[in-house]
Structures are given as C-alpha cells and as structure tokens.
Amino acid sequence: MIASFFRRLEATAVEYLLISGQATILYGAATFSEDVDLWVQPSPLNLARFVDVLRASGARYYKLTPPFTVENLERGHGFHFVLPSEPPDPDVYLDVMGRPPRVESFEAAVKNARHFETDFGRVHTVGIKDLVELKKTQRPSDYPIIGRLALALLEDPAT
Description:
By secondary structure, this protein is α+β, with helices and mostly antiparallel strands. Helix content is about 40%, strand content about 20%.
C-alpha cells in the first residue's frame, strides 16, 4: 500500500515532503517509526490533488480533526489518516501537516529538500537541517536521533 501511495503522489504531482521518523531512516539516522509523516504544501490545487490520492488509496480518518482545508493546514493543524493494507501487512498510519513547528515555509523547505530513490519510487524528503529542527520536540528519545543527523550532516555537508 505505501509503495502505491507514494507512486500516486508522484504521478499526480502532489507537493509534499516526508518528515519525522521515516525521513530520519533515509538519512541514515535510523529509528523505528510506526507512521508516515508528510508536510503537504497548503494550496487549493495541491490539497485537491492530495485528497484525490487519499481517496484512490482508500484512506480514512483515524482521529478527530478539524475539516481538512487549506486554512486549517496553514494554521498548523495535524490530520491523521489510515491507509489500509492487505493482510498480513499492517495498515499504515499517515499524519499530515501544512505548517509544522520550528521551520520556515514549505517553499523555503523545498529549496533544501532531498529526493531519495527508494523501492517506493522517488520520495521527496525534508532537508536534514529542517529535519533536525522538526525533531527538537523535548522528547528524550529524539536527542540521539538529532545527534545522528548532525553527524550525517558533518560527514556530508551536501545533505
């Protein structure tokens, strides 16, 4: 399911960035993450494309959230979905934001983004410096990850 979801994002030209746990894995600061977190560019056209991908993927809400609108994305609300999988694979939890905390605008983040070629196709991923800012959550478990991301940046400043 997750592979087809990312392929649909690419095919429909959804502007997004992978953030949080799954992004740390791609940068080599591997952590276990049970969900996928996306930063979606909050514009009417992009939101319409993203909703089309959600529908085609059979996604459903799994937490009460405000209406899924551009205005609420811009306010920083999080939206929580489940992407159903075929047994025995588990369903995939998907968290979506339009304005994550501690980082600049989506447009600024895209300039520093990295695109990874994966088994799921091309995955647009937030830049490592923005990822560090996003991981500054005051959760003790995030500090070792931040350290590994900093080391990855020092080893390859081009990331």
